[in-house]
Design brief:
The complex is a heterodimer of chains A (about 190) and B (about 200).
Chain A lengths: L5 H8 L5 H9 L1 H18 L8 H16 L14 H23 L19 H17 L4 H6 L8 H7 L3 H19 L1
Helix pairs in contact in A: 1-3
Chain B lengths: L24 H9 L3 H23 L2 H18 L9 H16 L11 H6 L7 H19 L3 H12 L4 H8 L3 H21 L2
Classes of the chains: A mainly alpha (about 190), B mainly alpha (about 200).
Chain lengths: ~190, ~200
């Protein structure tokens, strides 16, 4: 007759002993006593509660963690780390600027949005182009000094979590493209 | 006496955005890994109690447990990019909390009278004073015996007895095998029996 191993003692105490070893429990008094003692200890230990902190503690705890995390950089590695708000904000501005450029090039010199290129008109530029340049300068003057606070006051600010939700809703191709744009922008800023 | 109620608007940014509360753990992890601090806030809200409990079982002191739990969450934030989702988020957080406790608890004084936290907060209403004292004494002895266990035995006992983790989950957390976990558990209970047997 082989007595229980420590593994089997634990299995027996937890009631998951293999069927072919259960018989031993019935016939071996020392093993049975040991299993019962373990079971009793386990129940006793498990019955000792953790004193619950005050309900007010949890909000304070979250605030502590938030403060501690605020001093930490965003999580490292993976492409997702690219999608930080601090990266997305300038990248979004860059993307908007690119859109303006592309739209103006496609729309031609007389399109509704004058291209930045027209800010440096050639000597052969037409009056129309110069007029568009003036308009562009007015728009640039108006928009240029606007910051996030001003955008918020204008009702354009994002609420917490909006950026992440927007990124989550992107398709795989869109994420790839965003990642490519961000990589390009970071490379450009290095050079 | 005149009563008044003051209604105060919540601090901006303090609670997580309502939309985040509807996301599951995997979605929150994806957002937090991308730098979403609000998403991480929500993760903290969901798991803070359980992480705190792990830490409390190691220290038996509220202040120490709160510090260790905070440290665990800061580490979780830093490692969020490495969490690949093979295990449940709760298991991963437990692993971090246990590692923080294993690394730091030994550096702290294991105060035998730190156990008064549990006594102070225990509800003994409706119990005879003598019974309450006996039970309290016994609970104190059990807590002290658990605290005196070698670290891996203590971690195994805590995760198994109090957090109902499987042996496999505990093995994952401690970086060992199921066999080693069961052996640790067996020795932990054996040591408790020895300690408590001599001090009933």
């Amino acid at each position: 007759m082989t007595h229980f191993t420590p593994d089997e003692m634990i299995d027996a105490a937890e009631g998951v002993l293999d069927a072919d070893r259960r018989h031993h429990l019935e016939v071996c008094e020392p093993c049975r006593r040991e299993v019962e003692a373990l079971r009793g200890l386990l129940q006793e230990a498990a019955g000792i509660p953790v004193p619950e902190p005050s309900p007010l503690f949890w909000d304070g705890f979250s605030a502590r963690v938030r403060l501690a995390v605020a001093g930490q950089p965003a999580p490292a590695s993976t492409w997702a780390a690219w999608l930080r708000w601090s990266t997305l904000a300038p990248a979004g501005a860059l993307a908007a600027a690119l859109l303006v450029v592309v739209a103006s090039l496609v729309g031609g010199p007389t399109g509704p949005m004058a291209p930045p290129l027209s800010l440096r008109p050639s000597a052969a530029a037409s009056d129309d182009l110069l007029l568009d340049a003036d308009v562009w300068e007015i728009v640039a003057d108006l928009v240029g000094p606007a910051d996030w606070d001003a955008a918020g006051q204008a009702g354009l600010a994002l609420t917490p979590g909006d950026t992440e939700l927007a990124v989550l809703s992107l398709t795989e191709d869109e994420r790839r493209e965003l990642s490519r744009l961000l990589a390009g922008e970071i490379e450009r800023s290095k050079s | 006496m005149e009563w008044s109620v003051k209604v105060v608007a919540p601090e901006a940014g303090a609670p997580p955005a309502p939309a985040l509360t509807h996301l599951d753990d995997a979605q929150l992890v994806a957002l937090a890994a991308a730098g979403g601090r609000e998403a991480f806030d929500e993760i903290v809200v969901r798991h803070r109690r359980s992480v705190y409990h792990v830490c409390y079982r190691f220290t038996n002191r509220h202040e120490d447990a709160a510090d260790l739990a905070q440290d665990a969450f800061v580490r979780a934030w830093r490692g969020m990019g490495q969490f690949k989702g093979q295990a449940a988020l709760s298991t991963w957080l437990h692993r971090i909390a246990v590692n923080v406790c294993l690394n730091k608890v030994s550096l702290k004084t294991v105060s035998t009278e730190a156990l008064s936290d549990g006594d102070r907060l225990e509800d003994t209403r409706g119990e005879r004073p003598g019974d309450a004292i006996d039970r309290r004494e016994r609970a104190r002895a059990v807590r002290r015996a658990i605290q005196a266990l070698p670290k891996k035995q203590r971690a195994t006992l805590i995760l198994r007895a109090y957090h109902d983790l499987s042996h496999q989950q505990i093995a994952d957390i401690l970086g060992s095998s199921v066999g080693a976990v069961k052996a640790n558990f067996f020795h932990a209970l054996g040591n408790l029996k020895k300690t408590l047997g001599s001090k009933p």
